[in-house]
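Sharing a chain and its predicted structure for anyone who wants a worked example. Both blocks are below, sequence first, tokens second.
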Amino acid sequence: MASKRPTPAQAQEKLNELGLKITHPRIVIYNVLLSLEDHPTAEIIYKSIHKQNPSISLGTVYKTLETFVNIGLIHKVKSAEDKVRYDIRTDTHHHLYCTKSDRVIDFYDEELKQLINRFFAKRSIIGFKIEEVALQITGEVLNHDLEEFVIDGSEPVEIEDVMQSKPQKEKEQKNPDEKAKYKKQVQESPVPPNQLSIL
């Protein structure tokens, strides 16, 4: 699926809509975000603009990026090393994180989106209001020439299949004697007040 990357005109329109003053640093930083596709860090953005714009400090880059995040112009993405990176796409999509190259790649699959939506339509997280679900899939890119990553397989996956299937390891983990022993240990151990013990 093609990236839904906004244009500079759309960015300027959004800034105007939200009453945010259009300044030279904001335009420069946003244009760099449009040109860098690999979810850059603030430092990468700073290095990209510093030669042509020496008056824009790293602090200004950080402040501008935070302003863009706060108004919904961009999103923050964290890599496995906990580095904060910035994503120009604000539609719901997932990310592939390559541990070898430190790349963060946009990933979108309609069937996966529907599967997640159907799952959370049937289940909820107690005490938590879900606003958006976005996955970060960690692994290694095997072919850096690929422009788009897609899920392999033509068989549709049904939510009932996912909810009923359990990994084989989980099934083999506890025999009836182990379960009884574990249940006894849990019953004998003190449970702090207001905590629920689920067996």
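Comments welcome. DSSP finds eight helices and five strands in the chain.
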